[in-house]
Every structure is written in C-alpha cells, then in structure tokens.
Amino acid sequence: MTVTIHLADPDPAWAEQYRHEERRILAALGDIALTVEHVGSTSVPQLAAKPIVDILLLVPDSRDELAYVPSLIAIGHAFERREPHWHEHRLLRASDPAVNLHVFSVGDPEAARMVLFRDHLRRDETDRLLYESTKRQLTQQQWTSVQHYADAKTPVVSAIRARATATAADPDA
After folding, report:
1. Are the C-beta atoms of residues 3 and 145 closer than 8 Å to each other?
2. The model scores a pTM over 0.90
3. Distance (Å, rounded) from C-alpha 77 to C-alpha 21?
4. Contact 52, 42 (CB under 8 A)
5. Distance of alpha carbon 134 from alpha carbon 52, whole angstroms
6. What would the DSSP string read from start to end of 97-112?
C-alpha cells in the first residue's frame, strides 16, 4: 500500500478554521488549555501545505489524559496516538475541518521548537521557499506512510531549525 501526499496552495480559510477550532478547544477545556497555537504549514501564509490544520495544545501534564481527552472527544476529536517516548506527545484528530491536535506538557522543548519553526518561516522567505520546494519535490514520490514523507523532510527541517535558533539567539545577525 502506498500513500500519495497532496499539497494545497495557501488558503486564507486555514486561519479561520484554526480560530474556530481554538474557540471549541478553549470552551471544552477551560483552564486545562494553557496554550493553544496554530502551528504547521497551514499556519504560515504563502506556504503550500497538506490541508490539515495543526494545532499545538499545552496542558499541565500531557500524561494526565483524563484531564483533557474526554472533553476533546466530546467535541469531535478522536484519540490517535500516545507517544511517551517522544516528549509525552499525544495526538488527536478531527475531520471537519481536518485537524491534527498535538498535545504536550507546558514547558516542553518540542512545543517551543514548533513555534520557533513556524515563526521563522513566517519571517524568512528564503527558508519558506526552500521548505516548500522540498515538500513539493517529495510529493512526487509514493510513500508507505505519511510519517515516511515527514521523515524525508528531516534534513531540511533540521537545517531551517538551526538557522531559526541562531536568528532567535541573535536577531541582528
């Protein structure tokens, strides 16, 4: 079985889809939702993306699933994955609109890297174009899973993250 990755041209509707989902998450979780952020390619204007809105949710402790998972399921999210080996990440999905909800504990460094990457791509046209051209090139291939496609982007993502980190450390550089 193979997977074909489809990239959509940038769509201003993604920002509204995020805002709608953000309101639903905040209403469902209240004070448990410490941070809700639009991340991933759909959060970067002018960047082609898989038409799935990625949302970062920070909670006090992502391992305490009873504190947030039932409320998210009640508003239409499905529990997809528990990754205790990778930053205690939890993934939930929704389908209308298509959403990947990434849950981490507050203060997790991976969550900070996601925001740093997004912010850098919003500011840096050269890296945004490099990232998009890499994604477009990779979509020309068949993949055994979406994760294999994501893994194939790792060298470029790592290089961009390194530049983003350097820029954040010295914004005048």
Report:
1. yes
2. yes
3. 11
4. yes
5. 18
6. TEEEEEEEETT-HHHH
HSE of 92 in the Cβ direction (CA atoms, 13 Å)? 23
Per-residue pLDDT of the chain (173 residues; tens, 9 = 90+): 889 999 999 999 999 999 999 999 999 999 999 999 999 999 999 999 999 999 999 999 999 999 999 999 999 999 999 999 999 999 999 998 999 999 999 999 999 999 999 999 999 999 999 999 999 999 999 999 989 999 999 999 999 999 999 988 876 65
Q: Please, is 50 exposed, middle or buried when counting C-beta atoms within 10 Å of its C-beta (0-12, 13-18, 19+)? A: buried
Contacts of 50 (CB under 8 A, 6+ apart): 5, 6, 7, 8, 41
In a 3-state reduction of DSSP, which class is residue 41?
Answer: helix
By C-alpha distance, which of 100, 29, 98 is closest to 65? 29
Tell me which residue of 115, 117, 119 sits closest to 159, measured CA to CA.
117
Report the length, in residues, of the chain.
173
Measure the CA–CA gap between 111 and 116, rounded to whole angstroms: 9
